[in-house]
From TrEMBL:
Name this protein carries in UniProt: Adenylate kinase
An individual GO BP term: AMP salvage
Residues holding ATP: 10-15, 127, 200
Binding site for Zn(2+): 130, 133, 150, 153
Recorded name of the encoding gene: adk
Keyword Signal: no
Record organism: Sphingomonas changnyeongensis
Length: 215
């Protein structure tokens, strides 16, 4: 099964993708994570992407589609893919069609996380992750059980994303409305889109997505 998780910044795509990986053995393909890894490693792609990401704009379609193709090629043919943060433009949606077809895969679901944009700024500006294992936390919604110590690995260093400030988040949301939302009709016409209330509790969102995948 291959699915797309679609929604604006902070909608919960990464949170829900991680849960699907744990529960169903699917593989999360997050272009944001791939680009951040490239920036950290100082690769040519990373050097090109850094300023664009810091400004909240979109990296070129060619770069991200190449990353997705390479990631799919590293997967076993029977492993399902969760596309998280990709596609983000009509051009990327069209490229994904040929990427999947070329690998004998089909798209089964597009799950749109429906959210209130004003609440998202709070979600994003409050989030932080463990520097060692990447476990996610939030200033208000999910603190480590012991202050300053990661629940998952015991790490004591945490980090925040440079693009998680209120001004950049607004730009990222504008990019979503202008460039990403227009891909929905493309999938609606094929009956692939299911909407989930992304403002519900995390567990409720997980259950709603699970019900769609089990249908
Ligand atoms: P990317 O990393 O994809 O960021 P994004 O789409 O802005 O999404 P986020 O990771 O910010 O949010 P999310 O929906 O995963 O939410 P999360 O689960 O973390 O992209 C970053 C940049 O890379 C882009 O701006 C662009 O420059 C570039 N890029 C990436 N892909 C690209 C592409 N395809 N084309 C071009 N450029 C690309 O949740 C957020 C917070 O909310 C967390 O703290 C979480 O704990 C909390 N939370 C989640 N769900 C709930 C809930 N139900 N209730 C309460 N809190 C919740």
């Amino acid at each position: 099964m291959n699915i797309i998780l679609l929604g604006p910044p902070g909608a919960g795509k990464g949170t829900q993708a991680a849960r699907l990986v744990a529960a169903r053995g699917m593989v999360q393909l997050s272009t944001g994570d791939m680009l951040r890894a490239a920036v950290k490693a100082g690769t040519p792609v990373g050097l090109q992407a850094k300023a664009v990401m810091d400004a909240g704009a979109l990296v070129s379609d060619e770069i991200v589609s190449a990353l997705i193709g390479e990631a799919l090629d590293r997967m076993a043919p029977d492993q399902g893919a969760i596309f998280d943060g990709y596609p983000r433009t009509v051009a990327q949606a069209e490229t994904l069609e040929s990427i999947l077809a070329g690998r004998g895969r089909t798209l089964d679901h597009v799950i749109e996380l429906d959210v209130d944009e004003d609440a998202l700024v709070d979600r994003i500006t409050g989030r932080f992750t463990c520097a060692s294992c990447g476990a996610g936390y939030h200033d208000r919604y999910k603190q480590p059980a012991v202050a300053g110590v990661c629940d998952s690995c015991g790490g004591t260093e945490f980090k925040r994303r440079p693009d998680d400030n209120a001004e950049t988040v607004r730009t990222r949301m504008a990019e979503y409305r202008a460039k990403t939302a227009p891909i929905l009709p493309h999938y609606e016409a094929r009956g692939l889109v299911s909407r989930v209330d992304g403002m519900a509790e995390m567990d409720e969102v997980t259950a709603a997505i699970g019900a769609i995948l089990d249908r």
